[in-house]
Amino acid sequence: MFHFLGLLLVASGQRRSLPGKSNDPSIALPLPRSYEFHVAPMQGYTNAPLRHLFQLLSPDAILWTEMEKVKDLLGADDLAIQKRFGDLEKQHDNRHRLTLQLGGNDAFAMEKCVSGLLQSGYQFREINLNCGCPSIEAGGADYGASLMKQPALTRTLFEAIGNACRSSNIHNTHMPAISLKCRTAVFDDINDLEFAMTSSPDEKWWKDEHFQSLCEYIDQAQLGGISHVVLHSRPAILSGLSPTKNRLIPPLDYDFVEQVASEFPALRVTLNGGIQTLQDLKTEKMNRRNHIKGESRGVSTIGSHMAGRWLLRSPMSLLAIQHRILDSKDRANNVVPWDDIFAGAIEKYMRYVEGSIDKKIHPWSELCLPLYLAIEELRTGFEEDAEEHLILHAQDDVQWASEHFLYETMKEAVERMVLRLPGSKQGKSKAIPREIHWKRLSSALKNIVGTKVYNKWRRNRKELLPS
């Protein structure tokens, strides 16, 4: 069923005043904020190695961990924690760019987990509670999107995180912000969504109820201490849809997110969902601005955007995000040495990889995956482009000057990986083609990680292609 927190009030004719609003017009205006771009948390992907490459490609992007289960963190030893979040000595340098996402529904365990991490010296820009993943309940756990049915518990969980942050901040150093990530609504199955959409007197009626319910929920989270809401712009379907279909079938509604942002001017609201190219991002930013200009204030209440799978399909789009959107010094610069910047990022990443291999922290599969994603993006781009340069999804924003230079960059990276293999396997470097052959270069990684892992990468990448 569709879960309305305010349904009884509406049925009785008593519609509550929406939270976040104020009769004081000076308070109702959105707070001035700098624009942010967030790379979404993605299970099996946004681990430490991929985050490291992403940070090199876009130093100003906000990176998120994978969703970390509270019970797993409580049972993890020092090496497992280091694998997730990096060396304490180096972690200080990126604390303002990393958001920790947690999954769980036990307030006591949540507080203990956060306190343990912070008191150990780990610092995060933000701590986020996952209240938007629909596949968690389908897997038998009672958190994720199912928490949207439990506003009181959600508030308690945020209070627990806040208590941990305050009690651990004994030296008055950096204290992380607290945030909510959720969907626009939650339904038990797809039939409930279809029923709500077709049985209402008109679309406005069910959307009003949808909106009222979500505002009630965010109100409770705000009382719990959040300062930031990330809204995936679709409803969540708790059962009957795969994770992939849950990202595609429920309808997107960006104007709905704008409405929510207007109701909560004290909160940063980040729009998530459906952004698949740089042009999508630029268009959405412009649409939000024009939408608001046409109505009143001249500034959108949406303070930031989030995207995920687009950047797995096209990790080098982060270069364009950095130099065309986030870095004000480069926005007007029409000549950006994309090839050199990318090659520099790969060189720094390989130094990180070699250090990680020496310390035996990350498995080969995690260290090789970022290289695979970059090679596949280049392979796809050069195979589809008739001219011998690649224009990424950024269209006229990013142009690669030399396929040969990029190929040599990636070939050298793969060779360095092979040279780190046990001596008996170093002969596999012969499988790396000298001349440009992107498919064979990609396949050379199979000799490092094994056929099973490599084939899984290929299957997963097919799911990343725009539908």
What does this protein structure show overall?
The protein has helices at residues 7-11, 25-28, 48-57, 70-74, 78-85, 88-91, 107-119, 135-138, 151-168, 190-199, 203-224, 243-246, 254-263, 278-295, 309-313, 317-326, 338-359, 364-384, 403-419, 438-444, 446-449, 451-464; strands at residues 36-39, 62-69, 98-103, 126-131, 177-187, 228-237, 268-272, 304-307. With 467 residues, the chain is of the alpha/beta class. The protein folds into 2 domains: 7-326, TIM Barrel (Alpha-Beta Barrel); 338-464, no CATH class. The protein has an 8-stranded parallel beta barrel with strand order 1-2-3-4-5-6-7-8, surrounded by 5 helices. α3 links the parallel β1 (36-39) and β2. α3 (48-57) crosses α18. Mean pLDDT is 83; it is low at 1-30, 290-298 and 386-396. This is Dihydrouridine(20/20a) synthase. Pfam families: Dus (PF01207). It comes from Seminavis robusta. Keywords: Flavoprotein, FMN, NADP, Oxidoreductase, RNA-binding, Signal, tRNA processing, tRNA-binding.
